[in-house]
Design a protein that fits this description.
single chain; alpha/beta; FAD/NAD(P)-binding domain; seven-stranded mixed sheet
Length: 315
Amino acid sequence: MEKERVKCLIIGSGPAGYTAAIYAGRANLSPVLYEGLQPGGQLTITTDIENFPGYPEGINGTEMMEDLRKQAEKFGADVRSGIATAADLSKSPYTITIDEEKQIETEALIISTGATAKYLGLDDEKKYAGMGVSACATCDGFFYRKKVVAVVGGGDTACEEAIYLAGLAKKVYIVVRKSYLRASKIMQDRVLTHPKIEVLFETNAVGLFGENGVEGVNLVKRKGESDEENYSLPIDGFFLAIGHKPNSDIFKPYVETDETGYIITEGNSPRTRVPGVFAAGDVADPHYRQAITAAGSGCKAAIEAERYLSAKGLI
Ligand code: FAD
């Protein structure tokens, strides 16, 4: 298998990966970055970003990520297409296999592979992506001021998203498959007593409809053992809150992760338990999952990588 040796390898091309590449490039680390299946990361599947500082008029997600890539390349980052398919972090230099055909040995590794939102798997979720379907209330809630939205999920995240949305929207439905909420008691109390929130128990969302974006949701309510009622509700926004899958599988045997797979780092730093291996962005962040927080942690990871390489006398 073809082999190559680098000083600093970055896996992932979202805000965390590109910010790490900008800092690592400017620190003369000659970073190599692999983009993965989704060049530019999650922001390329949305339309306008209105909350990233520096863009008073908002910016298209794909455009913003192209700018980040250009900025990283300007400072010497070698941006390549390819997917990390295996990792050996048992000894330094660490070995990452790309597309099952090439091995990169690296002194410092920045994992910025993101966390993928889970969807129900309905065709309509794809059809209305960016047109009423969202997996992030903090990101898109603002577009639904004084409108009616539905949140799917029964855990703490779904309740948090519903409460956040209730601060903006006219009405919020929570669609819950079970006859109870899985959320903590305090979150349950907050949603069940909130005047703008209505919880629809034992209900499944089975489709969406609308001419130019989401105008309603088709629901099935379970009634007893075998009876069901099909009905629809007019809504403007459909928010998924059924969890995320951190893209950490190949690193799990080496770095510490929580039960969902988020990489656990040391305190507020991006340091994992493997020296010289850093985790940045959503893959290590179950709490905030925003472009700006991902970019911030990418910056920290590159600074840590520079200090690590410098302490080892490698730069
Ligand atoms: P990501 O952007 O998820 O990027 C991960 C990268 O890793 C991708 O390039 C992928 O190809 C790569 N990758 C994964 N596995 C591998 C592998 N094995 N090998 C190589 N590469 C790999 N945030 C905001 O701040 N404002 C918003 O308005 C906003 N809107 C959003 C709208 C939507 C629909 C979604 C889904 C998210 C939105 N977010 C928003 C959240 C924001 O997109 C994320 O917080 C941010 O993109 C996380 O950045 P990241 O760099 O950690 O990972």
